[in-house]
Amino acid sequence: MAMLRMKEEGLLDCKLRLFSHILTASLFAVLAQIPVISDLATTDDGYLVYFRINDSPEIGGVYRLSENRLEPFLSDPPRDLLFYIFDRRYLSPAVSANGQTVIGQYTFRCGGGSSCIPYPNYTSADVFRADGRRTGFGGFGSLSANGRFLFHAGRRVSIGINEQYRHLADLENGDDIDTGLATQTFRYAVTDDGRVINRATPDSKGVVIWSRQGGARRLAFPFNPEIVDAAINSIGTHVAYQAEPRGIGLLHLASNSIYPISDSGARVSFASVAGRVVFIENGRAFDYEIASGRRRQLYDGEVTDVIESANGNVAYVVNARLQIVRIDLPSLENRIVFTRLRGLFTSTATEAIVPGSLHVLRGPLPVQSAQSSFPLPAELNGLRVSIDGQPAPIVSVDPAGVVFQVPHSLPNDTTRLSVSIGKLLSTELNTAVRQRQARFLPATFPASNGQPLVFHEGFTGIVSGANPARSHETIHLYGVGFGAVDTAIPDGFPAPANPPARVTNPPFCTMSRFPDPAVDIALAPGFAGIYQINVTIPRNVSIFTSQLSCGGIAFASIPVAP
């Protein structure tokens, strides 16, 4: 039997980082706690989507989704455990049409009586620029589509402090102007030239528009509506409003004409450049085209939130299953881009776990990226995995998933796998335990059926059609699930090199044209839960591609040549 060969020392440095990104598996878990997705915001190209996760202190905050990759943007800090004196929570995000400017806003509340004297309650709008600049403004922020103007309104309240904000900030030249608009409501909208509408006046009987040239004036409606919400398009020609009891309408500012849109709609917003009004009616998402007067349903299903890009090219909805769905316009073709709060992990099949082996639950997950070192910890960035009550050592966590080692001592039966993030998000499910379920590691992540990575002898290069394995060369593969070994290794610790921890009951391996290949399998030295498979190519081979199979599950194509 061929001796197990180690990687060169220079390659050992990347052992955890490499395999936390190439190992793949599938598992589906249902979360007991169901956070709420709200406050969608997107760019013109639809590439970036921002949203808030509510009602979940452990993972609450603002998240950013791009090309199915989820990452925390602004995370709510844990609640103060001392009588919940301090509470800071991030609110609805806003993003410019080009994605270069993002508004992240938060509330700071102090509820500790006299302890709050030096700590006023306030709302703050933080501006993040693509060039890394960050600026803070008092009050709740509303951003113009072109990203130039920020209207921030609110107040700081405490003993001896009662500051009010009603300012329009020109982010290009630094002007910050007091508009004098009412502060009883924080619902505002801003045009691309810096006009502001107060989306519900203190007496809820109209809409006030403010400009630097003309100051504030109440819009004249042909009737006397009770305005609940309103929005203005970026060029300032139309105001869409939600009135009680008349539903949603459109006010043309130049002619003062009213165009009814919906008798029962809610949640109005603008796709301003495209000239569309977006709203929800009876749980369904619609948009209304101003030029043609045509309205259409965007999504065939119940929704809780909707946003359309400023240019009208793409829309997003949150459906009743807490999925974020992208809708390409005008075709109305849709696809789910995020479905990981009720079902946290992706799933194409439920794979059994193998004691001692590495395993992956694929996300995206609402966690920050982190990488472990030896010995592997039982918790990383607030995420824990336990199997049959035993903690599973964590290799890495990131929005793509969690990589962990299955504890060595598990029964060959069905067991409970538990995952928790912080204190509130947790899930449990039955999963099968197998003493062996061999598979080779692919060269790409997250493909679960990619071509396994095959190394030349001594790890001097990668075997390929242009660089095939040679006669009597010992090639190397990596894998998981190859079973128990002859050496006791504590969970979370790397496998030894001398002597190697060899598999006690290796799977039967075959190679096409080679009836009895020389195969040696052991835990890979310097790794935890990863197996190294050495295969010696026979002498006097011709040029062809041989198929390696171990246990009828692990397969690899290996180009060979004399």
How many helices? The count is 2
The whole-number mean of residue pLDDT values reads 79
Helix content: under 10%
Overall, the morphology is elongated
Question: Would you write up a description of this structure?
Answer:
This protein has 562 residues and is mainly β. It has a domain at 9-13 and 438-561. The strands form eleven sheets. Strands 5, 6, 7, 8 and 9 form a five-stranded antiparallel beta sheet that branches. A hairpin with a 5-residue loop joins strand 26 (303-308) and strand 27 (314-319). The longest helix is centred in the N-terminal third of the chain and has 6 residues, at 15-20. It is elongated.
Short synopsis of the structure:
This protein is mainly beta and 562 residues long. The chain is 2% helix and 45% strand. It has a domain at 9-13 and 438-561.
Give a topology summary.
Elements: H1 9-12, H2 15-20, E1 36-42, E2 48-54, E3 61-66, E4 69-75, E5 86-90, E6 94-95, E7 101-110, E8 122-129, E9 134-138, E10 140-143, E11 149-158, E12 161-170, E13 176-178, E14 188-190, E15 196-198, E16 208-211, E17 215-218, E18 226-232, E19 238-244, E20 247-252, E21 257-262, E22 265-271, E23 276-281, E24 284-289, E25 295-297, E26 303-308, E27 314-319, E28 324-328, E29 333-338, E30 358-362, E31 370-371, E32 379-380, E33 383-387, E34 390-391, E35 394-398, E36 401-405, E37 414-421, E38 425-432, E39 439-440, E40 454-455, E41 469-470, E42 474-480, E43 509-511, E44 518-523, E45 531-536, E46 544-550, E47 554-561
Parallel strand pairs: 41-47
Antiparallel strand pairs: 1-2, 2-3, 3-4, 5-7, 6-7, 7-8, 8-9, 10-11, 11-12, 12-13, 14-15, 15-16, 16-17, 18-19, 19-20, 20-21, 22-23, 23-24, 24-25, 26-27, 27-28, 28-29, 30-36, 31-35, 32-33, 33-34, 33-37, 35-36, 37-38, 39-42, 40-42, 42-45, 43-46, 44-45, 46-47
